[in-house]
Design goal:
The chain has helices spanning 56-70, 87-97, 122-135, 159-175, 189-198, 217-225, 243-255, 284-295, 300-316; strands at residues 13-16, 19-22, 30-34, 38-39, 49-50, 74-77, 101-102, 104-105, 146-152, 179-183, 206-208, 229-232, 262-264. With 323 residues, it is an alpha/beta fold. It has a six-stranded parallel β-sheet with strand order 8-9-10-11-12-13. Strand 9, helix 4 (159-175) and strand 10 form a beta-alpha-beta unit.
């Protein structure tokens, strides 16, 4: 990206809740799919919640410790419209921990769609996203740096999910942001990729979520070969999939030559996952899973590729040779 007059290469910049940040300033690992503030409670049980007041101090404690111990460089926070998003709380958490945070816009999968999707055209939904990307979240001064997590469930998106995916693609093309998806239990990634690319979005601007929940190495290879990022982003969620299976699936993707298309994270999405409540915490990737990856023979350059360079390239649209 060159300045039109001087020819000077500008640093690629991330949109964080604290303002623009050169990608080159992120020297430590990135958590590519997390939630710091969240409300997916539909039954009144309070489980699928990360409340900024009640749970925020524990979140701050964890992130600050990860910055100190592992050099945590960035968190991509994919709580979007209808998921209890709180940009102001994200800005406070980032300031308190010293960890930059990228906030998101978009819509989760259909059971969590807000009423604004009812009957709205793709064009109207696109305008909603572009407006938020350009103008920010209300009067917070915070602007989203990624579109996600755009959801679908099943092998094919429903009609409302299709509209949300198409609007996300159009908004991404218009604004230069990338799109991260939620593929429920890992299913439907191929359909998501086809929809998004068919709407004009380049595959390297797409991260297909929760693929570590799908025990299908051939699908992972097809997604990666198609140019998209394959997110193994529920690391440590043993009730959904064992880390032993995740490791096998990851190694298969690496052996197929697709290390440059892997993203890793833990997707902390309820307060019971916090370490203060006995859960695996945001650091499970670093404390538990990556040591197993190293023990399997993966070297530090590939670890850095998957945990830092890949997510930065995804967010900025950089070429695979950069960063």
């Amino acid at each position: 990206m060159q300045h039109p007059h001087t020819g000077v290469v500008r640093p690629r910049r991330l949109r964080t809740v604290g303002g623009p940040l050169p990608a080159s300033a992120v020297r430590g690992p990135v958590l590519a799919h997390e939630h710091l503030v969240l409300d997916l409670d539909r039954a009144g049980e309070g489980a699928a919640v990360l409340d900024s007041d009640q749970h925020g101090p524990a979140v701050v404690t964890e992130l600050a410790a990860l910055r100190e111990e592992y050099g945590l460089g960035l968190v991509v926070e994919l709580t979007c419209r209808g998921m209890g998003r709180d940009p102001g709380a994200l800005a406070r958490i980032s300031a308190a921990t010293g960890v930059p945070v990228v906030a998101a816009t978009g819509w989760y999968y259909e059971p969590f769609h807000p009423a604004e999707l009812d009957g709205a055209s793709v064009e109207e939904l696109t305008a909603t996203l572009v407006g938020e990307i350009d103008d920010g979240f209300g009067d917070t001064g915070v602007r989203p740096g990624v579109i996600g997590e755009i959801g679908s469930h099943g092998d094919s998106p429903t009609e409302p999910e299709t509209r949300a995916l198409l609007a996300s693609a159009h908004a991404a093309v218009a604004t230069g942001l990338s799109v991260a998806t939620h593929a429920q239990l890992g299913r439907g990634g191929l359909a998501q990729l086809e929809l998004l690319t068919g709407a004009g979005l380049a595959p390297h601007r797409i991260s297909l979520g929760h693929q570590d929940l799908l025990d299908a190495p051939t699908v992972h290879r097809e997604l990666a070969a198609g140019g998209a990022y394959v997110a193994f982003d529920t690391v440590g969620k043993e009730s959904y999939q064992s880390d032993t299976v995740r490791l096998r699936l990851l190694l298969a993707l690496l052996e197929a030559g697709h290390a440059d298309r892997v993203l890793l994270s833990c997707d902390i999405s309820r307060h019971a996952y916090l370490r203060s409540e006995g859960g695996q915490g945001y650091g499970h990737l670093f404390r538990s899973f990556l040591p197993r990856v190293r023990a399997a023979g993966v070297d530090e350059d590939l670890i850095d590729l998957m945990t830092r360079r890949n997510p930065l390239r995804f967010l900025t649209g950089a070429d695979t040779k950069e960063n």
